[in-house]
Write a structure and sequence with these properties.
Elements: E1 6-8, H1 13-22, E2 27-30, H2 36-41, E3 49-52, E4 62-65, E5 68-72, H3 77-80, H4 84-89, H5 91-97, H6 103-106, H7 111-115, H8 128-133, H9 162-168, E6 172-177, E7 180-185, E8 205-212, E9 217-224, E10 235-242, E11 246-252, E12 259-264, H10 269-279, H11 290-309
Parallel strand pairs: 1-3, 2-3
Antiparallel strand pairs: 4-5, 5-8, 6-7, 6-8, 9-10, 10-11, 11-12
Bound molecules: flavin-adenine dinucleotide.
Length: 311
């Protein structure tokens, strides 16, 4: 294990960002730590300075602002289900959050950390000696992707369970850095590059997740994992339909970024399923085989369209 040499817990957002810029070559923000610390113990995360952002009081509220719900990034996953508006307006978000990890972890894990949790691969999420014995992979400074034998691309999987539902809901995120705030669509932060899966600067803090309240969206959420009680996803899908007939498929666990297909309920649903399958760059880097996960993706999407008709 590579222990950090410096651990700092600032009290304000401004101080956290200033400290991040001071240590910008070798630091990480830490929230619940349930993703970052595991990567650290496995030697995959090597920053020497950790900036703990859980003391930022202003990042702990959930509030209605105009026609939006603002969920602060430090909200623990198990708190989402206790909030009246989230329960009544966004039940699929609670379902997705309650499928993350285990009850104990959800008391510590935050929604911001979930959106930003590191991509995974069965050849990367291993101990240091295991990775060394296979010659390391592209994501940990080796020169080959062990899953595919290729040299150009890393196919580590995007695994956040809440992000597919949030993207279905049209979530935007507020990022704060030294030069102020910006608000962008959540779906735009994912790059599709397994080595650097997100395009936001390391020094930016994800402050808030913003959800439009005045919309009627039905969502079917599904997740495939070996052990229901704790495992990361092998496949996550959120299929949604809004009041105007627009549909959206968002799939996780099948590509380095969420696979998103947009269409209309009057269109050919089988074509949308085919598009989702062809856009998913699945490789054999999971507990389940690529072939099985492709079949399960098809099945989940077919079932979700059927279920949408009945709610
Ligand atoms: C056994 C086990 C099972 C798990 N199963 C699942 C699962 O099924 N599904 C799933 O999605 N995840 C799973 N996880 C991963 C993890 O628990 C969750 O993704 C969790 O929500 C991460 O939140 P956190 O607050 O602990 O993030 P942290 O570990 O603190 O941070 C994760 C990353 O986000 C960055 N970060 C966190 N908050 C911010 C912020 N506000 N601004 C900028 N950067 C930030 C950190 O720098 C780090 O890079 C599992 C973990 C374990 C140990």
């Amino acid at each position: 294990m590579i222990a950090e040499k410096k651990y700092i817990k600032p009290a304000t957002l401004e101080e956290a960002i200033r400290l991040a810029h001071e240590h910008k070559d070798d630091f990480s923000y830490i929230a619940g730590g349930t993703d970052l610390l595991v990567n650290k113990y496995q030697g995959n995360h090597i920053a020497q300075c950790l900036i703990d952002i859980t003391g930022l009081a202003e990042s702990k509220k959930i509030a209605v602002v105009g026609e939006h719900l603002k969920i602060c990034s430090l909200t623990r996953l198990d708190e989402l289900g206790k909030h009246e508006i989230i329960t009544s307006k966004f039940p699929a978000l609670i379902m997705a959050a309650s499928e993350v990890a285990s009850p104990m972890l959800r008391k510590t894990a935050t929604i911001g950390g979930n959106i930003l949790c590191e991509n995974r691969c069965s050849f990367y999420n291993q101990s240091e000696w295991w990775r060394e014995s296979v010659g390391y992979c592209l994501k940990c400074e080796g020169d080959i992707c062990i899953a595919t034998g290729g040299k150009k691309a890393c196919f580590s999987k995007f695994v956040s369970d809440t992000a597919p539902v949030l993207i279905s809901l049209g979530a935007r995120v507020e990022l704060r850095d030294i030069d102020g705030s910006k608000i962008i669509d959540l779906e735009t932060i994912y790059t599709g590059d397994g080595i650097k899966p997100r395009n936001i600067p390391d020094t930016s803090i994800l402050k808030t997740i913003i959800l439009p309240l005045n919309q009627d969206i039905k969502i079917i959420f599904k997740k495939l994992r070996p052990r229901q009680a704790v495992d990361f996803t092998s496949l996550t899908t959120a299929v949604s339909l809004n009041e105007e007939g627009a549909i959206k498929i968002v799939a996780g666990g099948v590509d380095p970024k969420p696979v998103i297909i947009k269409g209309d309920i009057k269109g050919n649903l089988n074509d949308y399923i085919k598009m989702a399958l062809s856009k998913s760059r699945m490789v054999d880097n999971d507990y389940y085989s690529r072939k099985y996960r492709r079949e399960m993706l098809r099945l989940f999407l077919e079932q979700s369209f059927e279920e949408l008709k009945n709610i």
